[in-house]
Amino acid sequence: KRHDRVVEMRLCFFSGKVGDYKVPFKSTRKCRSTVYQKKKKEEAIVAKEKQAAELRQKYFGPDGELYKKRQSLMKPIQDDVYNAVKKVSEERGYQCIFDRASAADIIFASPRIDVSNEVLEKLGYSK
Length: 127
Prior knowledge:
With 127 residues, the chain is mainly α. 67% of the residues lie in helices and 0% in strands.
Protein backbone atom coordinates (compact mmCIF):
# COMPACT_ATOMS: atom_id res chain seq x y z
CA LYS A 1 0.00 0.00 0.00
CA ARG A 2 2.88 2.33 0.76
CA HIS A 3 4.29 1.72 -2.70
CA ASP A 4 0.88 2.37 -4.25
CA ARG A 5 0.81 5.79 -2.57
CA VAL A 6 4.32 6.66 -3.76
CA VAL A 7 3.49 5.77 -7.36
CA GLU A 8 0.13 7.54 -7.12
CA MET A 9 1.78 10.69 -5.76
CA ARG A 10 4.28 10.65 -8.64
CA LEU A 11 1.48 10.24 -11.17
CA CYS A 12 -0.53 13.07 -9.57
CA PHE A 13 2.55 15.26 -9.69
CA PHE A 14 2.99 14.29 -13.34
CA SER A 15 -0.67 15.09 -14.10
CA GLY A 16 -0.25 18.50 -12.50
CA LYS A 17 2.82 19.17 -14.63
CA VAL A 18 0.91 18.29 -17.79
CA GLY A 19 -1.77 20.80 -16.78
CA ASP A 20 0.87 23.43 -16.08
CA TYR A 21 2.38 22.71 -19.46
CA LYS A 22 -0.83 23.16 -21.43
CA VAL A 23 -1.99 26.44 -19.87
CA PRO A 24 0.84 28.88 -20.74
CA PHE A 25 1.21 27.71 -24.33
CA LYS A 26 -2.34 28.15 -25.57
CA SER A 27 -1.45 31.34 -27.35
CA THR A 28 0.04 30.99 -30.81
CA ARG A 29 3.07 33.24 -30.28
CA LYS A 30 6.16 31.82 -31.92
CA CYS A 31 8.66 33.50 -29.66
CA ARG A 32 11.99 31.67 -29.29
CA SER A 33 11.89 31.81 -25.50
CA THR A 34 8.37 30.33 -25.52
CA VAL A 35 9.44 27.52 -27.82
CA TYR A 36 12.46 26.91 -25.62
CA GLN A 37 10.30 26.92 -22.49
CA LYS A 38 7.83 24.57 -24.12
CA LYS A 39 10.60 22.16 -25.09
CA LYS A 40 12.08 22.34 -21.60
CA LYS A 41 8.72 21.59 -19.99
CA GLU A 42 8.15 18.70 -22.41
CA GLU A 43 11.50 17.21 -21.42
CA ALA A 44 10.67 17.63 -17.72
CA ILE A 45 7.32 15.92 -18.20
CA VAL A 46 8.89 13.03 -20.13
CA ALA A 47 11.54 12.65 -17.42
CA LYS A 48 8.89 12.56 -14.65
CA GLU A 49 6.78 10.08 -16.62
CA LYS A 50 9.83 7.85 -17.08
CA GLN A 51 10.66 8.14 -13.40
CA ALA A 52 7.09 7.11 -12.45
CA ALA A 53 7.24 4.13 -14.84
CA GLU A 54 10.56 3.02 -13.35
CA LEU A 55 9.14 3.32 -9.87
CA ARG A 56 6.08 1.29 -10.85
CA GLN A 57 8.38 -1.36 -12.37
CA LYS A 58 10.53 -1.40 -9.22
CA TYR A 59 7.57 -2.09 -6.95
CA PHE A 60 5.08 -3.98 -9.13
CA GLY A 61 7.08 -5.39 -12.07
CA PRO A 62 8.08 -9.04 -12.56
CA ASP A 63 11.21 -8.49 -10.45
CA GLY A 64 9.55 -5.94 -8.20
CA GLU A 65 9.30 -5.91 -4.46
CA LEU A 66 5.65 -7.00 -4.42
CA TYR A 67 6.40 -10.07 -6.56
CA LYS A 68 9.39 -11.03 -4.41
CA LYS A 69 7.38 -10.64 -1.21
CA ARG A 70 4.52 -12.72 -2.61
CA GLN A 71 6.99 -15.43 -3.65
CA SER A 72 8.64 -15.48 -0.23
CA LEU A 73 5.24 -15.86 1.47
CA MET A 74 3.87 -18.50 -0.93
CA LYS A 75 6.97 -20.72 -1.18
CA PRO A 76 6.63 -22.37 2.27
CA ILE A 77 2.93 -23.08 1.68
CA GLN A 78 3.59 -24.57 -1.75
CA ASP A 79 6.38 -26.71 -0.31
CA ASP A 80 4.09 -28.02 2.45
CA VAL A 81 1.36 -28.92 -0.06
CA TYR A 82 3.90 -30.61 -2.34
CA ASN A 83 5.31 -32.68 0.53
CA ALA A 84 1.82 -33.72 1.68
CA VAL A 85 0.84 -34.78 -1.84
CA LYS A 86 4.12 -36.66 -2.17
CA LYS A 87 3.51 -38.57 1.10
CA VAL A 88 0.00 -39.55 0.03
CA SER A 89 1.24 -40.71 -3.38
CA GLU A 90 3.99 -42.82 -1.77
CA GLU A 91 1.57 -44.35 0.76
CA ARG A 92 -0.93 -45.28 -1.95
CA GLY A 93 1.65 -46.24 -4.55
CA TYR A 94 0.57 -43.62 -7.06
CA GLN A 95 2.99 -42.47 -9.73
CA CYS A 96 1.15 -39.21 -10.31
CA ILE A 97 -1.61 -37.12 -8.77
CA PHE A 98 -3.59 -34.60 -10.81
CA ASP A 99 -4.99 -31.30 -9.63
CA ARG A 100 -8.55 -31.37 -10.89
CA ALA A 101 -9.04 -27.67 -10.16
CA SER A 102 -6.42 -26.60 -12.68
CA ALA A 103 -6.41 -29.57 -15.07
CA ALA A 104 -8.94 -28.65 -17.76
CA ASP A 105 -8.25 -31.87 -19.67
CA ILE A 106 -9.78 -34.16 -17.02
CA ILE A 107 -13.37 -34.80 -18.04
CA PHE A 108 -14.29 -37.18 -15.22
CA ALA A 109 -12.57 -38.59 -12.15
CA SER A 110 -14.11 -41.04 -9.73
CA PRO A 111 -14.61 -39.65 -6.22
CA ARG A 112 -13.12 -42.84 -4.74
CA ILE A 113 -9.67 -41.93 -6.11
CA ASP A 114 -9.87 -38.37 -4.82
CA VAL A 115 -7.08 -37.88 -2.24
CA SER A 116 -7.89 -34.25 -1.35
CA ASN A 117 -9.03 -35.09 2.19
CA GLU A 118 -5.90 -37.16 2.85
CA VAL A 119 -3.69 -34.29 1.68
CA LEU A 120 -5.60 -31.91 3.97
CA GLU A 121 -5.07 -34.31 6.89
CA LYS A 122 -1.31 -34.40 6.17
CA LEU A 123 -1.34 -30.60 6.24
CA GLY A 124 -3.08 -30.64 9.64
CA TYR A 125 -6.57 -29.78 8.43
CA SER A 126 -9.05 -32.48 9.32
CA LYS A 127 -12.49 -32.69 7.82
